[in-house]
Design a protein that fits this description.
This protein is an alpha/beta fold. It has 14 helices and nine strands. The strands form two sheets. Strands 1-4-3-2-9 form a five-stranded mixed beta sheet, sandwiched between helices. Strands 5-8-7-6 form a four-stranded mixed beta sheet, sandwiched between helices. The longest helix is centred in the middle third of the chain and has 20 residues. The chain binds fe (ii) ion (FE2) (2 copies). One fe (ii) ion binds next to α14.
Length: about 325
């Protein structure tokens, strides 16, 4: 399968699991297309044409023409210059690596990370948090993320891949949507008597089993193991990066009892304690692996020969259906 085909399919698979729903996404893309049509001169030159079809600003091909034939990818949750060198070293030793599949954004996917964050408003709206509240609280946080990333050395990994001639692409929110939906369906929708029961259920998911055996299990960041979970949500699985701490109080008011998260910030934890919301911190790398695995399973149906090398935190688990 060509890189371009593979990446386009990945984006569409991510859209199918998106909390906003397909119609809302199509509307969003239409707006970008209408905006683009009206642009001229310099404004048009600086417009990111990727936005005309791909709603995920943190997911894109960062090196390659798209015409490359892809059968075997090195998949990593964090791929930076060391991992690009690792890929090159492996290639030298005879391993076939057609492309790098990167989860945490690099290059322009990182530069534009904060632009996917409005998705969080829709995740919270599903629990009953008013969209006007969430939007108002999210804006300053998005500005902070934008300014913080703005000062980063954004294109090191991209350049390393260019210099070594290795095609590379980012899938971030694309696969985070898939793990969000998976956790919502397999954990949040079920009933548990205690937080400990949730931990046990999580630990039975192969990626968490793998990481738990290596000393990185899902943990209760706030709450007692015998405590009742109340309403369980996975609000911190997709949407670019952590939302503002204010979201904690909003969720508490909306009746949330337990939040499943990939990474809990100290400020969020303080808020959770203040508002009596339980927090379960699911192993970050295991959680990201689940999303990537679900995407690879879907892509493998279309490209039967698709094969992976696991690297940088990623562990491959194949699911049947
Ligand atoms: Fe992720
Ligand atoms: Fe992550």
């Amino acid at each position: 399968m060509k890189l371009k085909t593979l990446f386009t399919r990945a984006v569409h698979i991510g859209m199918e699991a998106d909390p906003r729903g397909k119609k809302a996404l199509e509307k969003l893309l239409k707006k970008q297309q209408d905006k683009y049509k009206k642009l001229e001169g310099k404004e048009k030159e600086f417009f990111d044409e990727e936005r005309l079809w791909n709603p995920y600003s943190d997911s894109r091909i960062i090196n390659g023409t798209g015409e490359e034939e892809i059968r075997r990818v090195m998949v990593g949750i964090d791929i930076e210059t060391p991992e690009v060198l690792l890929a090159d070293r492996l290639r030298e030793r005879g391993e076939k690596i057609d492309a790098l599949f990167i989860h945490h954004p690099e290059g322009r996917a990182l530069a534009d990370l904060e632009k996917v964050m409005p998705l969080q408003v829709d995740v919270l709206a599903q629990l009953g948090v008013p969209v006007n509240h969430a939007e108002a609280q999210l804006r300053p946080r998005m500005d902070r993320i934008w300014r913080a990333i703005h000062a980063d050395n954004l294109f090191r990994t991209e350049r390393a891949a260019e210099l070594l001639g290795i095609p590379a692409f980012n899938c971030h929110t694309v696969t985070d949507n898939l793990v969000w939906r998976f956790i919502e369906q397999t954990i949040c929708k079920k009933e548990y008597d205690s937080l400990e029961e949730i931990i046990t259920a999580l630990r039975d998911i192969p990626e968490y089993t793998h990481y738990a055996k290596k000393g990185n299990p899902p943990i209760i960041a706030h709450g007692s193991s015998g405590g009742r979970p109340g309403k369980i949500v996975a609000t911190e699985f997709t949407g670019g990066t952590n939302g503002p701490e204010d979201f904690l109080e909003e969720q508490s008011r909306a009746g949330v009892g337990t939040i499943l998260s990939m990474h809990v910030t100290e400020k969020t934890l303080e808020e959770a304690k203040k508002h009596h919301v339980n927090m379960i911190q699911c192993s970050h790398m295991a959680s990201d692996s689940i999303g990537i695995n679900l995407l690879l399973d879907a892509l493998s149906k279309e490209e039967k020969r698709l094969d992976v090398i696991e690297a940088a935190g990623f562990v491959r688990v194949k699911r049947k259906k």
